[in-house]
């Protein structure tokens, strides 16, 4: 029910908040250490299971995607380096319901938004992705088509490219990774219809006929999770993105498939890799009559369901 969904979403958000803090203060050296810390916090709670663990054979409690790994990155022992663009995706199963969210960390950047140019392009990439997420959420209300979300994300990216051109930057180009989709959520982690982050899904997107014709309805829970890649405009020509009402929907360079040991291809999970550094942000939200309520928001530190890493 809605109360349980809210609780699962809140737990996910609080675990994610604490995971981001660990990276920012340099308390973990690798995504493997981060995964262990989050998994330990879940075990300590006693009522929280990591949704990704064993999902299609995924071997870890969280997803960690660094630089050009867009989504579904597997935590590993590689040492995190200053300037790495790291996505942390936390999904939990609590009392029969899932909560799902992700956030970005720029390794070595304490997040205070200071004036240093050291992490300028990383901050700009995250800012564009955050704008795309918020604009996608802003398109949600009862009766709106699912496709309105993708159109809003597209427009945000198009505006970012136009702003770069206006500022005399002819090289920066942001693009939506078209086959990274949001989804319905609740008693199952992934429910249809899918939420495309572009108007028309590219050929390599998961096919979902419902997504093109369904309307959002109050009381429905979905995730919105755009993934944006930073490309070099010089290497992609000067056509589509220069048109004022178009943007670049980037087809993945590759979809590497992670096949866990002792499982066949049917247990594979796609690991998406792009042509440049990418960022992704995600919220679980509830459709309302006149908008959307974001559920993946941390509670007070003294709340009884607030976990601690």
Estimate the strand proportion.
25-35%
Largest sheet properties: 4 strands, antiparallel
Number of helices: 5
What is the straight-line distance between the termini? 28 Å
| Overall SS class | alpha+beta
Total strands: the figure is 16
The average pLDDT score comes to 83
Helix content: 25-40%
Low-confidence sequence ranges = 236-271
Sum up the overall morphology in one term: globular
Rounded Rg: 19 Å
Say what oligomer this is. Answer: single chain
One letter per element, helices H and strands E, the order comes to HHEEEEEHHEEEHEEEEEEEE
Report on this structure.
- The protein is built from five helices and 16 strands.
- The chain is of the alpha+beta class and 309 residues long.
- The strands form five sheets. Strands 1, 2, 4 and 5 form a four-stranded antiparallel beta sheet that branches. It has a four-stranded mixed beta sheet with strand order 11-6-10-14, covered by helices on one side.
- Helix 1 (2-24) packs antiparallel against helix 2 and helix 3 runs antiparallel to helix 4 (147-166).
- The protein is globular and about 55 Å long.
- The chain starts with a helix and ends in a 15-residue tail after the last strand.
- The model is unreliable at 236-271 (pLDDT under 50).
Features:
single chain; 309 residues; alpha+beta; four-stranded antiparallel sheet; 5 helices; 16 strands
